[in-house]
């Protein structure tokens, strides 16, 4: 695995821990459906399904991780969520939400993990 891949995996691990501490249940990680892309984390928040995109950046980068989720990415996440629902029995009673977990890694100290609910 290259450095970028390792950075992403580390960010996803921090994100999964953050979601679990918030009372959510992680049900899948790195879920793929064909060539359509990947859902970083699929979780349950009560009776809602949460499709979670994780963006990890170093603190010396030029933009906040949330800037890495343009409208095309949101559209892809929606299509992937539809695929998940088709493969796993349809929509839950609480509906589906798309969240973002932004992870910023400073040169020193602890990572800053921000959970943004309902980005789309």
UniProtKB/TrEMBL annotation:
Q: Which Pfam families match?
A: UPF0102
What is the source species? Streptomyces antimicrobicus
* InterPro entries the UniProt entry points to: Restrct_endonuc-II-like (IPR011335), tRNA_endonuc-like_dom_sf (IPR011856), UPF0102_YraN-like (IPR003509)
- Give the lineage: Bacteria, Bacillati, Actinomycetota, Actinomycetes, Kitasatosporales
Q: What family is reported?
A: Belongs to the UPF0102 family.
Query: What protein name does the entry list?
Result: UPF0102 protein LG632_23790
Q: PANTHER family in the record, alphabetically?
A: UPF0102 PROTEIN YRAN
């Amino acid at each position: 695995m290259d450095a970028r891949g390792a950075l992403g995996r580390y960010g996803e691990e921090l994100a999964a821990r953050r979601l679990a501490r918030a009372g959510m249940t992680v049900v899948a990680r790195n879920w793929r459906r064909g060539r359509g892309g990947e859902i970083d984390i699929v979780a349950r928040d009560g009776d809602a399904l949460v499709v979670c995109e994780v963006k990890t950046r170093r603190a010396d980068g030029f933009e906040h991780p949330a800037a890495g989720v343009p409208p095309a990415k949101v559209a892809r996440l929606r299509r992937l969520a539809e695929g998940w629902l088709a493969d796993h029995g349809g929509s839950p009673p609480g509906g589906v939400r798309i969240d973002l977990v932004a992870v910023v890694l400073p040169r020193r100290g602890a990572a800053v993990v921000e959970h943004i609910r309902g980005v789309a």
